[in-house]
Amino acid sequence: MEPAQWLADYRGRLERAADGARQARESLEQAGATARSPRGEVTVSVNAAGVLKGVALTPAARKLEVDALAALILTTAREAQRLAGERMADVMAGYLGDGPALTQLTRHLSPEVVR
């Protein structure tokens, strides 16, 4: 293969990889999740990394005991984090494919999320 052709092929591969990385980044930016408690008293939103973005309480939350409300917030936050992890794993599986890189990236996620 001619050096000029090899270089053109290499540049093309780099451009495709950069495009894929951009698409993965954009998808991850939107991969956060929101979960709602079973009766709707609590809504929790997290970003793709599972970092808390917001907590909303309805008037019904005021009727709960403080400990029960705290537990409900934690349970709802964990569900939002699980959903965000699932979405993140799906995005990255599309970019990386199933294999060691995806395993390394998702090793901290809960077992129900990991493929």
From TrEMBL:
<dbReference type="GO" id="GO:0003677">
    <property type="term" value="F:DNA binding"/>
</dbReference>
<dbReference type="InterPro" id="IPR036894">
    <property type="entry name" value="YbaB-like_sf"/>
</dbReference>
<dbReference type="InterPro" id="IPR004401">
    <property type="entry name" value="YbaB/EbfC"/>
</dbReference>
<dbReference type="Pfam" id="PF02575">
    <property type="entry name" value="YbaB_DNA_bd"/>
</dbReference>
<protein>
    <recommendedName>
        <fullName>YbaB/EbfC DNA-binding family protein</fullName>
    </recommendedName>
</protein>
